[in-house]
Amino acid sequence: MTFIAAMDNSGGSAGGVLDNYGQEWTETDKMEKVNQFRLRMVSDPNFTKDKISHAILYKDSVERGLVKNLNDKNIDAILKVDSGNTPEGTLKVFDLDGMIRFALQHGCVGTKMRSIVKDRWHVSPILDQQFIFAQRIANAGLIPIVEPEVPIDIMNKDSYEIELESQLQNRCRDFEGKLILKLTIPTNKTRYKKLYDYNSVERIVALSGGYTTQEACGKLSGVEHMGASFSRALSEGLQYSMSDREFSMQIAENIDNIFIASEWSK
């Protein structure tokens, strides 16, 4: 099963990405350097359509032309549309209609919005907001990725996932159109399988959530009907100082590990 590459780091997280990559940066040049890092990844011969179906991009990378580089490889672009989260984990208010127009104008086929489930009581308002926005996105002809992330280190993680699955069923049943669900790798390996009973669910993918590549792939393997949409795990071990050959060998290893884990989870 091909996977979705998550390459949508915003200004707030770009510095950390470059620190891990081993490249010096300033507030003035960090977005350009992150884009060059992403371009180096996309340009690598191992970054191919047979293993990667889509890549999620931040608006800045779209403006810098990375969609064309993806399309040249027959890989579709998805736009991160949200502006971060409130303390409760819901999406901050943002110009959704403007982001929809931007996505359509720049050749993106879908969007992604990430909320964070910090408390079981917040599952309902998080999903209410996500699905209202997702319906507007789908009505515009784009496929929305709905991402209510459960932190990997939260206490009683499985109980959060039981509540999340229950409430997702109601909303997926009533959703008009198609969507992708991006969820934390569940504690119970059969969790979320029944969401495929609803015609609206085109695909369910897992976020890496801070796990290492080895951990994320190990936990994903055997989770039924769940593919991958990894960020940190995809770029793990890549260094600015690497030769092109060293860089290519490392990204090939990451891509192969993620692809195999997604294959096992079919």
Percent of residues in beta strands: 15-25%
Q: Averaging pLDDT over every residue, what do you get?
A: 95
Structural class: alpha/beta
Main beta-sheet strand count, sense and barrel state: 8 strands, parallel
Counted beta strands: 8
Give a verbal description of the structure:
The protein has helices spanning 11-21, 30-43, 59-63, 66-71, 96-105, 123-139, 157-174, 213-220, 232-235, 244-264, and strands spanning 3-7, 52-57, 76-80, 110-116, 143-149, 179-184, 201-207, 227-228. It is an alpha/beta fold and 266 residues long. It contains ten helices and eight strands. The mean pLDDT is 95. The protein is globular. The protein has an eight-stranded parallel beta sheet with strand order 1-2-3-4-5-6-7-8. α1 (11-21) crosses α2 (30-43) and α6 (123-139) packs parallel to α7 (157-174). The protein starts with a strand and ends with a helix.
List the helices and strands and how they pair.
Elements: E1 3-7, H1 11-21, H2 30-43, E2 52-57, H3 59-63, H4 66-71, E3 76-80, H5 96-105, E4 110-116, H6 123-139, E5 143-149, H7 157-174, E6 179-184, E7 201-207, H8 213-220, E8 227-228, H9 232-235, H10 244-264
Parallel strand pairs: 1-2, 2-3, 3-4, 4-5, 5-6, 6-7, 7-8
Summarize the structure.
The protein has 266 residues and is α/β, with parallel strands linked by helices.
